[in-house]
Specification:
Helix content is 32%, strand content 15%. By secondary structure, it is α/β, with parallel strands linked by helices. The protein has an eight-stranded mixed sheet, sandwiched between helices. Strands 2-3-1-4 form a four-stranded antiparallel sheet. A two-stranded antiparallel sheet has the order 9-10. Bound molecules: N~2~-sulfamoyl-L-arginine (0X9) and zinc ion.
Amino acid sequence: MKNGWNMWTIISFCCLVFVGVQGEPGPELWRLEASTHHRIVRDLEDSGDVDVWGHSQDHAQVLVEPEAKSRVTRALEEAGISHLVEVEDVLGLVEEQRAQRRKRSTRSKRAAQALDWNSYHDMNDIESFINWVNVTGGDFVQVIPAAVTEEGRQVLVVHVSDPTVPEPKKKIWIEGGIHAREWISPAVTTYILYQLVTEWRDMLQVTDWYIVPVANPDGYQYTFSDNNRARMWRKNRRNNHARNGRCKGVDLNRNWNLKWGVGASSDPCSETYKGPVPFSEPETDGLQKVMTSIGDMDLFITFHSFGQTILYPWGWTNNAPANAKQLNHLAKKFADKVKDTSGGKIDYKIGGSGPLYGLASGATDDWAYGRLGVPFSYTIELPDEGRHGFLLPENRISSTVIETAAGVQCMVSYLANFGSCARRKTRTRQPIVTPRQQNYTPGQLSFAPRQENLNPREQNFTPREQNFTPREHNLTPRQLSFISRQNHALFRG
Ligand code: 0X9
Ligand code: ZN
């Protein structure tokens, strides 16, 4: 986040024109001259007075609501910590991006595509895409419904595997969208899924993949609502019954059962509320059950933003895990490949979660590592380093997903001993996927209800056979390539 200050300054000047868009004073983004590890920052976060956005060794970026300004100022003064206002009108910035999206969506209605990697997509588009993956993937794809959320959405795990290839294969779990506002994360998971069912099929000779495109669908969809404040939402949308229903949601990345409670809040109004008990939430409970049923996985990656940092356990302590050296080594494969693919522009930091981001327990990476025994477990904090933060502009999506996918492919190739990742072809352009051309009606997605303690492999679980999607809608390879060619021109790199 070294260069963040200058850019945020420019942005904050630009934003002055938006002051007052909401007709009320909105939150400000402050830069504190203290790391997020500092007790005062943790206390302010716990009390709900600040929402921590950016982590760094020497400063923290925090969102401060107007009513908390004087309290936070006082606390910082008492602790002798200086601060600067980086963005005066965060809601103005959100509104600016929303207006751009509105303009673009009117312009590109002709294409009617459900998914591309030039724009951010809501749950309808993503569900439509998963449906497309399911029907086009044939026997290679199984969709496992892991949970039903408070608002009735399904948390879906997409299992991509070549059923004709016998074990042993490396098992990889990729999860995204657990934090609602981190929009670049589902863009990456959907892109990896797309690569798997199109370009990466040869990797299925040695690997089995489980992809969770959006672990927190209610929260994610909420960030697309008209209220600009909603764009900053992090948790799920469960009713906490706290403060007359004013405070909703649990931080799904504080709700997993490993050292639950350390570095997490007990206040239902806090952005890092850990929930009443571990796995209190349908999303976390459903996912842990599917993960447990799969068992021996080799690689776990959860995508977050922002910070351009690849983190490995532990998050609940500053102690290094037993295989820290190997974890670091594989992380470097990812970082080097991303750097290479981006022409040297994207330079990831690597390290333990606790030391780099401050202690926080109940997260998926620690649980996968410590409870499930996945030897390689990572949280990847996607770009950028804080210039745009959660509001990464849409023109950064395509490069980010392509570079990240190349990094993941490299890690997996290395882990599965599947040739050197340097030799593998990295495509720089991808066509748009157009699931809606298959007459799919968004919002009608419904996967078969999941069965308790189901082991997808052993128990032959095939949601498609349970009347999910009629197989006759499968596209032939010729149709697929036609769609690809047709849409190639629409891909703005
Ligand atoms: O705090 C988090 O949940 C993650 N950072 S974020 O800014 N995306 O919210 C980092 C989680 C790192 N892992 C652990 N603390 N175990
Ligand atoms: Zn996150």
